[in-house]
């Protein structure tokens, strides 16, 4: 079985493709609706796929871990690359991991798959991310070429030369200095190995790629629990009347503009004690839902 073999069911099961225009939010919402597998179910599916080449079992293993790929992809947002593309690359890594997963080893699939997911994302970043972007706008490109032609000597421009170049090109002196800095900077390999003998050499940018100290399987279970709690919170708020919902939101969910009982009492034209009673009853109803 190849990664391509596994990619088709994502569309066949009506899950939106991450890179499709306007579908990323829908895709993320859809994958978070897929339940997390228990250890027993995961082991059973993995054995079915390994022993019987059951593609339905492989598909279910992939689908149940798509939310984890989204979680990992969000950790790489700082590179300025499309989240949907990162997710797609991570999905390829997930499918490769499912193909190679050995249920007899005794680890969760997510702990095994995280390395494959990150490897695909790292490769994508290495191919598409540039450390120094020189002349990214039309004005900067003009300055870039003219500055190289206008420099009369090697090395940094002095104040008079900066002023003259800025006047000739009708740009600010700050822009001239910034472009000169870019032109004078040396290239750094993204994943170049560090020179242990050079104490002054900067580490390669690849060294800054995200790592996590948390065990992937524990993170996966924690995320599922948090998603479940958030869903219960939404359901609980939905069951309250409008006034109770407003009081709970403004008293407990608004971190920036928390409001007092008296302020709500003045707004609703009742006593602060009445607002407290409404709040207590609303919280009681919501707690019952969480305890169910």
UniProtKB/TrEMBL annotation:
Residue numbers spanned by region Sigma-70 factor domain-4: 236-288
Principal location: cytoplasm
PROSITE patterns: SIGMA70_1, SIGMA70_2
Region (Sigma-70 factor domain-2): 61-130
RNA polymerase sigma-70 domain: residues covered: 85-98, 260-286
Compartment annotation: Cytoplasm
Known DNA-binding region: 261-280
InterPro entries in the record: RNA_pol_sigma-70_dom (IPR014284), RNA_pol_sigma70 (IPR000943), RNA_pol_sigma70_r2 (IPR007627), RNA_pol_sigma70_r4 (IPR007630), RNA_pol_sigma_r2 (IPR013325), RNA_pol_sigma_r3/r4-like (IPR013324), RNA_pol_sigma_RpoH_proteobac (IPR012759), Sigma-70_Factor (IPR050813)
Keywords: Cytoplasm, DNA-binding, Sigma factor, Stress response, Transcription, Transcription regulation
Sequence motif Interaction with polymerase core subunit RpoC, location on chain: 85-88
Pfam families recorded: Sigma70_r2 (PF04542), Sigma70_r4 (PF04545)
Role according to the record: Sigma factors are initiation factors that promote the attachment of RNA polymerase to specific initiation sites and are then released. This sigma factor is involved in regulation of expression of heat shock genes.
Quaternary structure, from the entry: Interacts with the RNA polymerase core enzyme.
Family to which this protein belongs: Belongs to the sigma-70 factor family. RpoH subfamily.
Name of the protein in its database record: RNA polymerase sigma factor RpoH
Gene coding for it: rpoH
């Amino acid at each position: 079985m190849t990664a391509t073999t596994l990619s088709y069911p994502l569309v066949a099961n009506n899950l939106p493709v991450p890179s499709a225009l306007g579908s990323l939010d829908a895709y993320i919402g859809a994958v978070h609706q897929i339940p997390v597998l228990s250890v027993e179910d995961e082991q059973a599916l993995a054995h079915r796929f390994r022993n019987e080449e059951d593609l339905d079992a492989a598909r279910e293993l992939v689908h149940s871990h798509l939310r984890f790929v989204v979680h990992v992809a969000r950790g790489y947002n700082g590179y300025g690359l499309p989240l949907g593309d990162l997710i797609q690359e991570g999905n390829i890594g997930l499918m490769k991991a499912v193909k190679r997963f050995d249920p007899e080893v005794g680890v969760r699939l997510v702990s095994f798959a995280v390395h494959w997911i990150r490897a695909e994302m790292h490769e994508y970043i290495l191919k598409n991310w540039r450390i120094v972007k020189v002349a990214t706008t039309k004005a900067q490109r003009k300055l870039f070429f003219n500055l190289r032609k206008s420099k009369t000597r090697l090395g940094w421009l002095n104040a008079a030369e900066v002023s003259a170049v800025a006047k000739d090109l009708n740009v600010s002196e700050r822009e001239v200095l910034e472009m000169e800095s870019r032109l004078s900077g040396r290239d750094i390999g993204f994943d170049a190995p560090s020179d242990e003998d050079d104490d002054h050499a900067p580490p390669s940018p690849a060294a800054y790629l995200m790592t996590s100290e948390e065990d992937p399987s524990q993170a996966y279970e924690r995320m599922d629990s948090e998603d479940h709690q958030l869903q219960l919170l939404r359901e609980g708020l939905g069951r309250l009347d409008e006034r109770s919902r407003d009081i709970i939101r403004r008293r407990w969910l608004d971190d920036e503009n928390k409001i007092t009982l008296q302020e709500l009492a003045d707004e609703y034209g009742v006593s602060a004690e009445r607002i407290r009673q409404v709040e207590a009853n609303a919280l009681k109803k919501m707690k019952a839902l969480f305890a169910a």
